[in-house]
Amino acid sequence: MKYLIISSGLRKQGNSWAMASLCCKRFQESGEEAELLALSDHEMPYCDGKTYVDHPTTQLFRDKVGAVQGIILATPVYNFDANSAAKNFIEITGQVWENKVVGFLCAAGGDKSYMSIMALANSLMLDFRCVIIPRFVYASSSAFSNGAVTDATVVDRIYELSDELVRFTTSLNSS
Asked: Domains of the chain by range and CATH?
C-alpha cells in the first residue's frame, strides 16, 4: 500500500508539519511506502471554478492523491475549522479522493475546538465516499516545543493513527 501524509499548514515546519513528519516517520519505520507532502513547499492555485484546472500544481497534487490508498491530512485548526489550504487542496484535487481511507492530525492553539474536523470529514465521506478512520489526533499548543511533538501521549496517538490507517487500507483493499 502507498500512503500520503499532507501537511496543510502554510507555516514552514509548524505544528501540523511536526505531526505529519512524525506520522510519515512511523510509516517508513514500519516498512510502508509513505510520502510527506507539505503544501507550504508549493504554489497552490485557488479553486476558482476555472483556471486552477490547468495549473501544473493541480495535476501534481491530483497525481499524488490518486496514487495512494490512504491519506493522513495534518491541518492547523483556525476559528474552529481546518485551515483554508486544506479545504482548497481538497477542492482542486476533487474526484481523486474517491474511495480513499483518510485520517486526520489536528494542531490547534487551544483545547476547545476538538470537534472542528468533523465538517471536513463529513464532506469527504459524502462527496467522495472516503472511509474516515474513527480516530483522529487533536493536539493543542502545549503538545509542541521547538518545532517538535513533545507530548508522549500525542506521539503515541499519532503512531496509533498510522497503524489504524494501514489496518483499514489493508482490510478494505484485500477483497
From this structure: 2-172 (3.40.50.360)
